[in-house]
C-alpha cells in the first residue's frame, strides 16, 4: 500500500490549506444564506459539514501514509540490525557493514540507509549521519537505534554479539507493542459499533415514532385539533439527529485513534469515515 514520508512542515502546510478551503466554503455558504439566496442542492448545515469533510480529508490522508511509512521502517529495523550483525561477523568495520546492509530490501528503510551511506561516501561524519537519520524518521525506535549504533562505533571491538542482542530485544519490544495494539483494536471496534448503533436508533426513531407523530399532527390540523408538539417538526428533529451523528463521528474517531494508535491525529481517518457515513445515511436514507 502507498506510503511516504511527510515532514512536519508539509503537514502544517496541508492543515493550513485544508482549513482555509473549509473556511472559504463556510463563508461562501453563510454569504449565500444571507445575501445571494441562491438555490443549492444541499441545505446550509449540510454544506457546513461538507466543509468539515474537506478540511479533514487531506490531513487524514497525509497522516495515514506518513504513519504507514514510519511503522514500516520500525518493523524492518530489527532485521536490519541482524543483517548488520551478520556483516560484522566477517570482520568488516561498522561503516562497511552498514554499506552492505543498505543493499538489502527493507522497504522505505533501504532508501534512508542509502542516504546515510551516501553522506559517508562524501566524507560526512558517521555520528552526524545517524543523528540526521533519527531526525528524519522521528520514531522512538529510530532514535534509540541511532544512539546505540553511535555508541558501538565509538567503543569499537566485536559488534556482532551486541547487535544480535539489540535485535532480539527490539523484536521482543515490537511483539509486546503488537500485542498491545491488537488488544486495543477491540476498543476501536467498540467506537464503530456504538456509532452504527446510534445511527440505527436514529433511523428507527425517525421512520417509526417521529414519522407517526408527524402524520398525527397533520391529521389533527386537518380537523382543527391541537397538538402540544406542533413547534417541533419532523425536519427539525431530523436535523438535530444529523448534527449529533456528525459530532459523535468526529469525536468518536479521534478517541478511536488515541486508543488504537496512541495519537489523536491517527483518529482523523476514523473521524472522516464516520462523518461521511453519517452524511450519506441522512442524505440518502433518512
Element-by-element helix/strand order: HHHHHHHHH
Shape: elongated
Biggest sheet architecture: none
Structural class: mainly alpha
Taking the alpha carbons of the first and last residues, their distance comes to 35 Å
Low-confidence stretches: none
Output the radius of gyration: 28 Å
Strand content: under 5%
Helical region count?
A: 9
Which SSEs are present, and which pair or pack?
Blueprint: H1 8-36, H2 44-88, H3 94-101, H4 108-121, H5 126-137, H6 140-155, H7 160-222, H8 234-261, H9 268-285
Textual characterization of the structure:
This protein is mainly alpha-helical. The protein starts with 7 loop residues before the first helix and ends with a helix. The longest helix is centred in the C-terminal third of the chain and has 63 residues, at 160-222. It has a domain at 182-286. Helix 2 crosses helix 3 (94-101) and helix 2 (44-88) packs antiparallel against helix 7. Helices cover 81% and strands 0% of the residues. The model has no long low-confidence stretch (mean pLDDT 85). The chain is built from 9 helices and no strands. The chain has helices spanning 8-36, 44-88, 94-101, 108-121, 126-137, 140-155, 160-222, 234-261, 268-285.
